[in-house]
Request: fold
Amino acid sequence: MRYKNSVDFAEAMDQKDPLKSYRRQFHIPKHNGNDCLYFTGNSLGLQPKTVKQFIDQELSNWQELAVEGHFKSKTRPWFHYHKHSKEVLARLVGAKPMEVVSMNNLTSNLHFMMVSFYRPVKSRYKILMEEGAFPSDQYAVESQIKYHGYDPKKALVELHPREGEDILRTEDIIEAIKAESDSLAMVLLPGVQYFTGQWFDIGQITKAGHQAGAYVGYDLAHAIGNVPLQLHNYNVDFAVWCSYKYLNSGPGGVSGIFVHEKHGHNSGIPRFAGWWGHNEDERFKMQKGFKPMQGADGWQLSNVNVLGSAAHLASLEIFGEVGIEALREKSLLLTGFAEFLLQSISDEKLRILTPEKENERGCQLSLLIMKNGKEVFNQLTEQGVIADWREPNLAEHGGVIRIAPVPLYNTFNDIYKFYQILKEALDE
Ligand SMILES: *Cc1c(COP(=O)(O)O)cnc(C)c1O
Reply:
């Protein structure tokens, strides 16, 4: 694509955007009466207008049927409610419907997956992850290591970029996995890294992890709904995600898990069990003796959070209709346009940390502001830009602003306006 640095170009791109109508399906927050320039869909996705109907439906069912809503609801009986999300979730992560289920919250699910897939023994006890992982994942992993009686200082292998580089090279990740092949129990990486926006090579990393004798799992918080995924074909052991970022399912919304079919049929895998994972035909017999459902469903614990799942379904309906391929097509153009404009700014003022290669990133760009980062960020906020600010690790830098142009509701014009506001702020 040959981009042009002009508002006419941005408007022409919006005109011919095949997905342009979807923006109208979302509530856009306002700033001084105008639409905000919302770039934090990687943190909390916007509300689809249909969410209200989906939740209202279940409030009515609760009001009119109460406990009978579990089976006698004319819309979606609560007993089976989680099943309605399987089809679209499976398409989003590249899985079979039986390999996915929506449940709980993200960090809880990460723990439950580690109960099954991190079972350290003296000769094989290490976990490999990236340095600077999202804090909740760090805490979860360290606490699991300690829970099993090991020392995180020895058991945790953290990858960091080469001196002077910002992102991890696939070859270095694979080397590190090989180097630990005598003692590696699990590899846990993000699909897309929350801070840098780097999209990892899930296929190659999973293969290397398996060759080293480890289980390989992914935290897809920043990947699902952002990039196309192929968990089944890549033989990934497990994955977890949340639904409130790119999946637009509301604050603290229901999470989801992937468990590969090869494990899903193995009822002997240790797990923390609950009644919702028990064979559903016998669930209400309330008998002793846990018999897991086949597939990811066998990891469920509790009955479904129906109101949260209603918001989730409303949003997934949109993803089911558009498809991740069409979203990705637009996403590449939107982010490419943002990159093109931002590259015209001097690198003494701004540097993009996110990889340049399309197959190494999703929609997010992480912008290192070299000086007075917080002032620049505050100016953006005053002008109606909603972006994300991170204090830098390196004191001499100004800080990092992350922006996520989301193909469902962001426009090329949003990007152009953002670029102009940012350029002005940097010039001051
Ligand atoms: C957003 C995010 C979380 C948040 O965890 P919750 O349990 O949903 O609060 C955890 N890990 C990663 C990588 C994230 O991006």
Remarks:
- The chain has two domains: 7-35+324-427, 54-321.
